Amino acid sequence: MKYTPWFIRAIVILLIIIVALTSCNKDKDENKITIGEVTRSVFYAPEYVAVAQGFFEEQGLEVDIQTTAGGDKTMAALLAGSVDIALVGAETSIYVYQQGAEDPVINFAQLTQTDGTFLFARNPDGEFNWDQLKQSTFLGQRKGGMPQMAGEFTLKKHGIDPQNDLELIQNVDFANIASAFASGTGDYVQLFEPQASIFEKEGRGKVVASFGTESGHLPYTVFMTKQSYINDNKAIVQKFTNGLHKAQAWVDSHTAEEIAEVIKPYFKDIDPAILVSSVNRYKEQGTYATDPIIDEDEWNNLLDVMSAAGELKQRVDSQTIVDNSYAEQAASTK
């Protein structure tokens, strides 16, 4: 099976840039943690709740969140040491491991357990059927990223060959996908919230299906860090995971309206009603993990999705780059 090396090439280039920019800043307070998140999204609501509700602060941690747009940039920042912990798709840790990294990236706490994208139709026609996508133009996500792989996995499950049964567009940067669709590109598009709700309100079409529901549970976005960081900061990693789990329990037990109110400072330009509907859509389909443990079934489903996309060199045992000890400890603490 052919493996696409774009991800590693991008990381090498970005590493050179990041190391140059950060080489002069070596001093660090061990209780300060910098998170690099792959994007700013309602999809990551428990992360913002953990900060806003003081759950990390209760653990004696000062947490700073930086948005490092794109999986390659986020991983490069982690490997270069400009962030301590990355919030990104678990597939990125597999790509790095398969390149023989001496200091592997370890997944230690899961945030979301489903895909976060929705199938958005420009001209929905009656009751939706997946066959409607055949011969259409589909504005997808970047090749090798989890949104695109989960999308292709779902299409194949419904008997659609992404390469032959539709016109698949994959050359639009993540940040420009919504604007490309708004300008007229594609009959269907794969969108995260709140963009899907915004487009519905603007009358650009409607959500007709959920890739999260269709592709099943998997460690879609995970907090991960280098093995060397864990070795040197075991107590910090545990405290971080404890705070995260408390936020997960809070999100699970509160309404979309209450969650939206707490995370509102992170989405100042979003209509409060849109924020509520976006959170509710994710809560209804069980997107937010209720504990940080990455279980074996979820991991194997991730490998199946990657294999179906032709992006997996070989199956990687979860115990190789997953350390659930911190998550299990956090989940056992009331």
Automatic annotation (TrEMBL):
Q: Does Signal appear among the keywords?
A: yes
List the transmembrane segments. 6-24
Gene3D superfamilies in the cross-refs:
Periplasmic binding protein-like II
Q: Which UniProt keywords apply?
A: Membrane, Signal, Transmembrane, Transmembrane helix
Subcellular localization(s) per the UniProt record = Periplasm
**What domain of life does the native source organism fall in?**
Bacteria
The protein's matches in Pfam families, at most eight in alphabetical order, are given as:
NMT1_2
Cellular compartments per GO CC:
periplasmic space
Keyword field contains Transmembrane helix: yes
Q: What is its main location?
A: periplasm
Write out the similarity annotation. Answer: Belongs to the bacterial solute-binding protein SsuA/TauA family.
Name of the protein: SsuA/THI5-like domain-containing protein
Q: Which organism is it from?
A: Paenibacillus xylanivorans
